[in-house]
């Protein structure tokens, strides 16, 4: 029997990498594709979720200050965090408040909806809103920071899966059939193989963009990237995306500023209002000559993209103990290049800053474009359709890969491609792997763990090594 050529050994080695990467990634790809596709439609879902509080009568409308008073009367001891302008005049406003904390626990947050006439018409727990749950599953698997690590590890190996898959797909002199479109007349084996390979080819670029634009949110990669940016002086203003599900500077309303509330022990200056029954109602905003109604009127004149959030002086700012010293008006649109943040002096109402997307550091702008694309909001419905198509192709890739594995899997073995007897000369591939490992910390850690398990543990368990398709002394 002839010894395998170096090219054959290299092909089989990369095939094994692709197999193990896919084995780990496939379940995560299905979860992330489903939740990611759903999150693309966050504006539409939230509008549906708030459907009962839209198209309300506008006759007899009261001021924003009166609307806030109605909320604080309905929730005694609550603290105002922000006021969201209605998308249309007939819509209820959303007033975001922190309820009193019970004991040592952190306060609960509420999104309270108030009609134009100043009546509380509904409330939602922001952590249980549909898109917030979808986001928590997508980014953290509902497991907090540990879930974020799992997602980041899966994303790292998904990059390996795509790159190794492209190597396996490479035509090598074949025609376009089975490369650009699947062959349907060559039997089931060829059909499944072609559906898998061709789908992988068409989705690879879009998938890599999604994976790379998601890394700044990841806990370990995002934290390391933030440290590098700080060290290199690539920071201008506040970062407006989360890391590991936690806000890092700036007002991230998606996480509802729980951490900021818990960290802030200093009481906010209060404005008291005497109710008709003689009770005193406290508004959680700084005592200032400039009222919320004045700032809301100014915000409406600016015609900023929805949603527009007005945050009063004294409200928590981002992650930590900082509080706002001025009025803030921010367009929190998911299409981040359109975001604008304005601040106003609390004593005079004079505009003190006007920050746009173009004022951010170039690194933030690049990531902002990537985040907007990732969330399906950069190009409107076109972006959403491309995102759905990407998710469907990734799910197709996962399903066809699973079917191919089940059809090929022998009894008593995992079904991994057998490792070549002669180790492959990786050369450039080794350089690529080391480059990816340096770029993706969790990939590097997992590679080291795999190497140690194989070298130090599997040699004592030959049956397990055989089940994995390994010659114990060989590398994956």
Please summarize what this structure is.
The protein has 476 residues and is of the alpha+beta class. 47% of the residues lie in helices and 11% in strands.
Topology:
Blueprint: H1 6-39, H2 42-49, H3 64-74, E1 79-84, E2 93-98, E3 109-114, E4 120-124, H4 130-140, H5 145-169, H6 188-214, H7 219-232, H8 258-263, E5 271-274, E6 280-283, H9 292-302, E7 308-311, E8 327-331, E9 340-344, E10 351-356, H10 362-374, H11 381-408, H12 428-439, H13 441-457, H14 462-467
Antiparallel strand pairs: 1-2, 1-7, 2-3, 3-4, 5-6, 7-8, 8-9, 9-10
Helix pairs in contact: 1-4, 1-5, 1-11, 5-6, 6-10, 6-11, 12-13
Give a verbal description of the structure.
An 8-stranded antiparallel sheet has the order 4-3-2-1-7-8-9-10, covered by helices on one side. Strands 5-6 form a two-stranded antiparallel sheet. The protein has 2 domains: 195 residues, no CATH class; 174 residues, no CATH class. Strand 1 and strand 2 form a beta hairpin. 47% of the residues lie in helices and 11% in strands. The chain starts with 5 loop residues before the first helix and ends in a 9-residue tail after the last helix. It is α+β, with helices and mostly antiparallel strands.
List keywords for this structure.
476 residues; 2 domains; elongated
